[in-house]
Amino acid sequence: MARDTTDTQPIEGIDELVGYLAAGNKPRDKWRIGTEHEKFPFYIDGNAPVPYGGERGIRAILEGMQEKLGWDPIMDAGRIIGLVEPTGQGAISLEPGGQFELSGAPLETIHQTCREGNAHLAQVREIAEPLGIRFLGLGGSPKWSLAETPKMPKSRYEIMTRYMPKVGSKGLDMMYRTCTIQVNLDFESETDMRRKMQVSLKLQPLSTALFANSPFTESRPNGLQSWRGDIWRDTDNQRSGMLEFCFAPDFGFADYVEWALDVPMYFVIRDGHYHDMTRYTFRQFMAGAARNEVPDGLPTMGDWANHLSTLFPDVRLKRFLEMRGADGGPWRRICALPAFWVGLLYDEQALDAAETLTSSWTYKEALAMRNAVPEHGISAPFRNATLRDVARDVLAIARIGLKNRARKNRDGYDETSFLNTLDEVVARGTTSAEEMLSAYHTRWGGSIEPVFMEYAY
């Protein structure tokens, strides 16, 4: 999330919180595709991490991007920490370890998404390369220890950094040493949201498997295909995971609100200052627990919006749905991830087929799949088959959905071609992570340094 919200409208009751989510309902002709992708900046000389400050730091990249794009700066305590397009059509932000993120504009087609990503990468290269900086498209930092990883000067991250070790063993790794590709998608009603939430929660482990791209940690193989996927198993289980209650046949906005109310908060913002609220749940905050501790110590709709942005389930519900399972990766993956989910969820025939395929899958089965994927990737077992077999069926459904959408580019091609990189994973039976591991043990000569050349933007 590029910019925290400061909406000062007071909250009168829980119904308003439910209404906030329901306000995301949109007619189908208003459905859009918002793609986010993160990447690790590194110095070409020595493959070292890039700090925030200095003449060749991340601040300099942001200032160069601001001058080039004319976007508005996002400031935190007087420091530039991001950029936002003046009309809200896209933003650039920093993750805790300097991961550089584009939060894309809400677009109508995957063709537009690919053009947006390509333009962004060209723009950031133009600014960064004269500084001796490039970007790495992986799901996990392959070389630097946590101590070697820079820290970005964002107030919310200072609070999270103090809090994470209290609630899990891998939260700091999640913050500072992982990257993702995400897509944000719309729904037209509570029923439509429920169907999409349930299908995408069940299929999120498959997404993690297909995009598995983080097999190295601190210059060595880590024994996993998606280190990032494994990290999420013990980051903060109060606010992350598959959310079993979402599998209920009558799941709705109110259920998500009730869950969110009992998750500890991170912060509230008052007069530009971030106040640590990790000792309170949002429900306690609404009951007046912080009335005497922070200025205007009663909750606002801005506080609620910010709280929702600090919840990390595999599929996150805001006024849209966020698909959160995939590792970061090279340019083709930035196009493939939205194609995968748009194909499954934005066409009625495809959504029906995906729902039918997964209707008998239980929460325990989906959770077992999620737990197996970080190590085994698409070879993870499922019932009497593997995820590779499941992937064939799911990709066929996604292809039908994209074909039915019939969104063609100027050359007359529809969006189905963006699935080709995932078809290749299934056809060869190996993930990107396995391909990297093979290279490490053969032509890379037991070194991870070549990854900075072969997987760089």
From TrEMBL:
- Transferase is among the record's keywords: no
- The answer to whether UniProt assigns keyword Disulfide bond to this entry is yes
Q: Which GO terms describe its molecular function?
A: glutamate-cysteine ligase activity
Q: Which reaction does it catalyse?
A: L-cysteine + L-glutamate + ATP = gamma-L-glutamyl-L-cysteine + ADP + phosphate + H(+)
Name the enzyme group at the top EC level.
ligase
Listed InterPro entries: GCL_bact_plant, GCS2, Gln_synth/guanido_kin_cat_dom, Glut_cys_lig_pln_type
Write down the EC number: 6.3.2.2
The record's note on quaternary structure and interaction partners says:
Homodimer or monomer when oxidized or reduced, respectively.
Q: What does this protein do?
A: Catalyzes the synthesis of gamma-glutamylcysteine (gamma-GC).
Assigned protein family? Belongs to the glutamate--cysteine ligase type 2 family. EgtA subfamily. Belongs to the carboxylate-amine ligase family. Glutamate--cysteine ligase type 2 subfamily.
* Protein name according to UniProt: Glutamate--cysteine ligase
